[in-house]
Write a structure and sequence with these properties.
The protein has 368 residues and is α+β, with helices and mostly antiparallel strands. The chain is built from ten helices and twelve strands. Helix content is 36%, strand content 22%. It comes from Cytobacillus oceanisediminis.
C-alpha cells in the first residue's frame, strides 16, 4: 500500500504536518492527551485541548505554527505555543519574538484570556540536537512519534493510517542517524542522504567525543549558506579566546573570537580535507559590518601583531605539509586532514592537532 505522506510529498511540509497534528488534537481525545503528555510534557491531561493554527500576532512578532489551549470547565488554564520545524532553520529572532512580552501580550489578547494564564513554549523539530534561540522554548523532536502503537491512540481509521505512514517515514529518516558509529566509513554512511541527515550525523558523531575535547574546548554548531553552498559548521573554542565580542557597534582592539572551524559540505559528498583557525570579532558578522566602525584600525593592528607571532611559532614546528599560513579577514591558519575515510579518523586528527595548537594560541592571546 502506498505511503500517503510520501504520495503527497508532504514529509517536510510544515504547514501540512502542523494542520494534521492540530486536527487530530481537536478530533481525537486520546491523541490530544498523548500529545500533551508525551510531546508537551504536560502532566494534567484530564482536560480538553483546543488547537489552533496560523494565529497571527501582528507585524514584528509573526505567526506561531501551533497554539494549544488546555481548558478546564471551559476556561483556559494553560497555553502551549509550538514552533514546528521539519528541516528549515529558525527564522531571525523567531522564538525570541514569540516569547517576548509584546508577543505574549498579543497572544493573550488574541485568545481573549487573562494574562495570569501560564504559557509553555515548545520547539518541535526533526533535528534532535539544535535548541531554539530563546531559552524559554523546551526542545522536543519527532523521534517520540516513531515507536507508538497508534491503534491505542487514534480511533479514526483514515487518520490512523496517515499517522502510521508519517511514523514510517520518520523511522526511515532517523535510522541512519541513530545507527551511525565513529567507525563508519563517511562516504558509505552518507551516501543517498539529504543535507539535513548528513548534518545530524556529523553533530551526533562530534557530540559523542565532546567530553574528550582537550583543554576545556567547547563545541557549537550551525549552518552556513550562500549561492551554491550549504555547509554544517562546527566551532571549537575556549572561554579565554572570546573577549569583547563585536555587537554591531563597538569594536575594541582586543575584540576577538578565536576558534577552530570545521566545515562539512552538505550538498554533495566531498572528503573532509581540512579545517581552519579563525580570529575575528564575531563569527556571525562579515567584515563589511565592522570595516568602517570606530576602533577597526586598532583592532587590526593588534590582530596582525598576534597572528604574526603565532605564524612564527607554526613555522618553528616545521610541518609545512600540515599547516598553511593565512592572513584573511577571519582565517589565519589552514590545517590539513589527511586521514579522512572514517568519522573516527577525522575526529582523531582534529583532536590531535588542536591539542598541539592550543598552547600556541594561548601564548598568542597574551600578546598586547
Amino acid at each position: 500500500m502506498m505511503n500517503t505522506i510520501a504520495l503527497l510529498n508532504s514529509f517536510y511540509r510544515e504547514d501540512v504536518i502542523t494542520d494534521f497534528i492540530s486536527n487530530l488534537i481537536n478530533s481525537e481525545e486520546n491523541y490530544a492527551k498523548w500529545f500533551a503528555r508525551s510531546i508537551c510534557d504536560v502532566s494534567d491531561t484530564d482536560a480538553r485541548f483546543v488547537s489552533k493554527t496560523r494565529i497571527g500576532l501582528g507585524r514584528g512578532i509573526g505567526t506561531p505554527d501551533l497554539v494549544i489551549e488546555r481548558k478546564v470547565n471551559y476556561k483556559t488554564d494553560l497555553i502551549i505555543v509550538i514552533e514546528n520545524k521539519l528541516g528549515a532553520l529558525e527564522g531571525a529572532e523567531q522564538t525570541n519574538r514569540y516569547a517576548s512580552d509584546k508577543g505574549k501580550g498579543k497572544l493573550y489578547s488574541t485568545l481573549k484570556v487573562g494574562q495570569d494564564v501560564p504559557i509553555k513554549f515548545l520547539f518541535l523539530t526533526l533535528d534532535p540536537y539544535t535548541p531554539a534561540k530563546n531559552p524559554f522554548f523546551d526542545k522536543k523532536d519527532y523521534l517520540d512519534f516513531v515507536h507508538v502503537d497508534w491503534n491505542n491512540v487514534i480511533k479514526d481509521e483514515a487518520a490512523r493510517k496517515i499517522m502510521y505512514d508519517f511514523s514510517s517515514l520518520l523511522k526511515e529518516f532517523y535510522e541512519p542517524i541513530t545507527s551511525a558509529k565513529l567507525t563508519d566509513n563517511i562516504a558509505a554512511k552518507t551516501k543517498n542522504l539529504n543535507a539535513l541527515q548528513k548534518k545530524l550525523i556529523w553533530i551526533n558523531m562530534l557530540q559523542t567525543v565532546q567530553d574528550t575535547l582537550p583543554n576545556r574546548l567547547t563545541m557549537t554548531f550551525g549552518e552556513a549558506g550562500g549561492f551554491g553552498r550549504n555547509a554544517a559548521v562546527f566551532l571549537f573554542s575556549k572561554k579565554e579566546w572570546v573577549q569583547n565580542r563585536f555587537d554591531g557597534e563597538k569594536l575594541l582592539a582586543n575584540s576577538m573570537n578565536i576558534h577552530f572551524e570545521l566545515s562539512i559540505n552538505l550538498l554533495n559528498f566531498s572528503k573532509v580535507s581540512d579545517f581552519a583557525l579563525h580570529y575575528e570579532p564575531n563569527p556571525y558578522k562579515p567584515k563589511k559590518d565592522y570595516l568602517n566602525v570606530k576602533g577597526y584600525k586598532e583592532y587590526e593592528l593588534l590582530r596582525e601583531k598576534r597572528y604574526d607571532y603565532l605564524h612564527q611559532l607554526i613555522k618553528n614546528l616545521d610541518q609545512k605539509e600540515l599547516f598553511t599560513i593565512r592572513k584573511g579577514s577571519n582565517s589565519i591558519l589552514r590545517i590539513n586532514i589527511n586521514n579522512n575515510q572514517r568519522f573516527e579518523d577525522v575526529v582523531r586528527e582534529l583532536i590531535d592537532v588542536m591539542e598541539k595548537l592550543i598552547p600556541l594560541i594561548d601564548q598568542m592571546v597574551n600578546i598586547s
